[in-house]
Amino acid sequence: MRALVKDVENIKLGIIGMTEGNGHPYSWSAMFNKYDKQAMTKECPFAGIPVYLNKENYDSIGIDGAHVTHVFCDDRKDAEHVAKLSLIPNVVDRPEDMIGKIDAVIIATDIGSEHVRRAQPFIEAGLPIFIDKPLCDNQQDLEFFRKAVEAGAPIISSSSMRYCKEIAPYFHGNYREIGELRFAAMTMPKKWSTYGIHALEAIYALTGGGYQSIRNTVTGERNLVHLKHRNNFDVVISSCRDIMYNPTIMLCGTQGALEIKLKDSYSSFRNQLVAFVDYLKTGVRPMPFAETEELMKMVIGGLESRENNGQEIWL
To answer: Which of 55, 122, 215, 248 is least crowded, fewest Cβ atoms below 10 Å from its Cβ?
Structure first.
């Protein structure tokens, strides 16, 4: 494999945002560039972002060899504010205006149905792309991305939950002390279409692939999702708009149980961005695209089941 960028010591990134409730252009850009501490603390419209940024040693913030140099938001005023707080030198009026000035792009929006439109100019330009979760929310768009990757487009997408430091010790079944896994559960706030992937990918990082079916029993804005795995265990995810956010994974096995509390948002986001930069420097994917494809089938299956009165959808 070889680097996807010409100068691995000076990678210029563009970032695209924002969507409702998603402040990644502020926080992710700050993780690369540092930030205006006073302005971020007082002015950031997402209260949690300065809280976790300010817990870090300011001098240690940054990701070697990469900076965000250009930003675009659908509302230019948003882009100008992100640029001010997260020290981005260039604001553009159209995403395409970044092309020729950046080495790679981060699409930091979480509405899956928009991602084909947002990604297409950069795919055509041959630029590497990181797309925030979920990559997509329908089968047609998943097929578009599958074909693009198959044709060589350097696209990756993930939830930051995959990169939680609390999950790392138990990656891919490393929890033998509980015996054979029989049940896993997690809760997640907000919408299944945008936040369900957080729970799916966190659990997937622990169990690996092989999911057979999904059923979404929904009441109002409450999604109760049941997945079956070929290795004879079940997963239940409760996705509810106004549930208290307390990311905890419960694993139950034949010889014991394990509770994993996910506490450090900063490290999970940073680890995710480092994985993208490493991909740019080496050309080695952080995980096979087949994993992303399976996860998107689970997101889409949950939506299809909901639309069909809780029908079991085979994956």
So the answer is: 55
With contact defined as beta carbons under 8 Å apart, do 134 and 193 qualify?
yes
Structure tokens at 141: 């768009």
Say if residues 303 and 313 touch (Cβ distance below 8 Å): no
What counts of helices (H) and strands (E) characterise the chain? 9, 13
Q: Positive or negative, the Cα torsion across 134, 305, 223, 210?
A: negative
DSSP state of 126: T
Nearest by Cα to 106 from 124, 116, 118: 118
C-alpha 147/C-alpha 99 separation (Å) is 22
pTM, to two decimals: 0.95
Instruction: Give the integer Cα–Cα distance in Å for 102 and 292.
Output: 25
- In the chain, the DSSP E strands lie at 11-17, 66-73, 90-91, 104-107, 129-132, 155-158, 181-189, 211-219, 222-229, 233-240, 248-253, 257-261, 313-314
Measure the N-to-C terminal CA separation of the chain; round to a whole number of Å: 32
Taken in order 31, 33, 38, 44, the sign of the CA dihedral is negative
Stretch 106-131: mean pLDDT, rounded? 97
